[in-house]
Structure formats: C-alpha cells, structure tokens
Design goal:
Number of domains: 2
CATH class of the largest domain: Alpha Beta
Shape: globular
Keywords: Methyltransferase, Transferase
Radius of gyration: 21 Å
Number of helices: 17
GO molecular function: methyltransferase activity
Distance between the termini: 49 Å
Protein name: Protein-L-isoaspartate O-methyltransferase
CATH architecture of the largest domain: 3-Layer(aba) Sandwich
InterPro entries: Emycin_Estase (IPR007815), Hydrolase/PRTase-associated (IPR052036), UCP036794_erythomycin (IPR014622)
Helix content: 40-55%
Pfam families: Erythro_esteras
Length: 422
Amino acid sequence: MKEKLIMQSIRKLARSFNSEEVTKGLVEEAGKSKYVLLGEASHGTSEFYTVRADLSKRLISEKGFRFIAVEGDWPSCYTLNRYVKGYTDEGVDAMAALSDFNRWPTWMWANREIIELAEWLRQYNTDKPDEEKAGFYGIDVYSLWESMDEILKYLGTKDDASDLEAAKRAFECFEPYEREGQSYGISASIYGEGCEGEVVSLLLRLQDKWKDAYPKDKENALSAELNALAVRGGEAYYRTMIRHDADSWNIRDRHMVEALEKLMEFHGEDARTIVWEHNTHVGDARATDMAEDGMVNVGQLLREEHGDEVFAIGFGTYQGTVIAGKSWGAPMEKMRVPAAAANSWEEMLHRDGAEDKLLYFDKEDSVLDDTVIGHRAIGVVYHPEWERGNYVPTVISKRYDAFIYIDQTKAVSPLALETVKV
C-alpha cells in the first residue's frame, strides 16, 4: 500500500526535465537563495557535470551568483580560478590550467566537461572588473602538503619575511612524514606527535590579511589564508581518520563550510554561491542514516545556519556508465552502473516513466515526509557487483528541495594526465 502511495506522490511532483520552460523555472526558484547546492550521485557521470554547468551558467549570468565552490582542493582549483578570471598568460588554455589536478582521483575535475565550463567562465569574465568576475574555488581538505607549498611560495614574494619564517617553522613539524597523510595520522593519533599547535598559530597569523592587502593582491592574500585553513583542516582530518569514526567526516564537512563562509565574506554581504558536491555532502544528513552515526554534512550545517537561504538539488540516475576505481589509488575504469535496485528511489522514478525528471518537494507531502527510501550513492571507489551496499536510507523530501533524475547516463570524459599522486 505504501509503495502505491509513493508512486502517486512521484506522479504528482515529477515534471519532464527536457524543456527550456522547466529549466528556466528551476533557475528562478533556486535563484532566490544565497546558497544553491548542486549534488551528484557519483563523481564520474557526465550528465551530472553538464547539467550542473548549465544551471551554474544561468545562475551566474541571469541571477548574479559570484562563484562556484566545489569538492576539490584549494591549490589546484585556485589555478583554474586564475585562468577563468583572465589573470594568467594569454597563451595558457584550460587544459594547462587543469594540469594541477594530478592527484587521484584526477577525473573528478580534470575532464572535458570542466574544460567547457572553464572556457565559458573565462569568456563571461572578459572585460568585467575584478569585483564582478565569477570565480571557481575548491573547499575540500586533502591538500595538506600542496597548501604548505603554496603558502611558502606566496610568502616568499612579500617584503616582510616574518610570516615566511613563521610558516617554515610550523611546517618543519611535518617533515618526518615525507608527504604521507596516513603516516602523519598514525603518528599524531596513536603517539600524540601531531602538529596542530603549529598550524593553528600560523592560521591565526595569516587570518584576514586580505582585508588590508592592495586591491590587486587581495585574492592572493585570501588564497594564503585558505591554504592555511586547508593545512589546519588536513592536519585534523588525517589525525582523526585512523580511528574510522564520524570525527574525520565531520571535520571535513565543517572545514568545507568554514572555507565557503570565508569566500562569502570575501565577496561581500550580497554574494551568492553555487556549491558542487556529492549528494552525501549537499543533501541534509538529518534526513539519512548518517545522523544515527553522529555525522553532519554541508547541507545540514548550511540549513541550520541560513535556513531558507539554502536551496539543495539532488541528482540520480537509473543506469548507465561511470568512471571510478576498484580501490583507492587504483586505475580509473569505465564501469557499468546496473539498473537501480527494486523499490529504490531511482527505480521508482524509472518505473514512473523512463524519462528525465525534475521534482520539487512539496513540504506538505506527508507520504514522502514519512518514508525512508534507498537512494543510490556511488563514490570514487565502486564495485557494481556489490550494488546493494550503495544505497543510503533517505527521507528524500527532507534531504533536498528539488531532485533531478537522469534516466540513462554515461561516464565523464577524463583528461589523460601523466602524473597521478594518491
């Protein structure tokens, strides 16, 4: 009986996602918010990138959104940001600007779908003053050593050598671990030989210096602070990940929110942003079994702080192909995404009709509000043969404000990068 009621709710809420009118309506609805969160059900599906790119272009060009913040590292994304804002040499192209995405999983951002978006952003920013250019930033936590490198590089250009010397002293603490996050985590967690104090002191030293920087250097000064924030977040993440509990997840998502809020402050009180992350980050954790494990995420934290100023859009697919690896650091592969499991959210949407759909969730829909449905999540590590383990129990209407369903999807198009670090 409940299954029949769910299908009735889907038929009431779903509309075909294949027309300009429907897309325009979504842009209008999402464009009322300060934070538009665009999810994805995998990190390797082309349509999730292209649909998010199309929505982002319209939110930027029609609604004045100032930047895209993604589930990527600050240093590599900042290189791309410099390119799309036209701050790099004219001879540099988008392919070159993506060359810093050389750590596994490279395909998440070094792909042809991002090249197209980068070229659009660069063209959009042409002839605009700096304060009106749309940016592209990474707010994730994994760039511990790369961010240290960038801080030293930046501070080395300044006349006052005191900050550079302070950074060098702080980073000496990390030298024994030879750029290995797991090695550092074991030492810090088990033996109490961490570098937290040094990193916190450095962050406090660099905090808010962008406010006093020369106009032409404000964003580079902000970058130094965000790199220091990434070092602090990365240190805490690796220090806790060895325990395999909720702490490392929560540190990561709280870090991403803190970095996002710092970017909002930098862009001014009227700034609005578009966030690209996996559904597991943008969909409210309180509407999933994550809450039972004491986990929070970006979507929950932003909703708690900003309420109706947040508009979260989830994504899903019935079947297709995806880029992923069989284990962390394994070669990327094009894998088959099998038909969604029976009675999952994706299977029910397919059963309603094999077409792309957009759903706005009716806050008065008691059926979906009281129903836990399996919702597929594919990570960078994926085993299609273990498909049953890829479903997150979800109250879908409370997790998102809207949902985009692409019935048949294909793998993202990775760029071939020679250097791949894990």
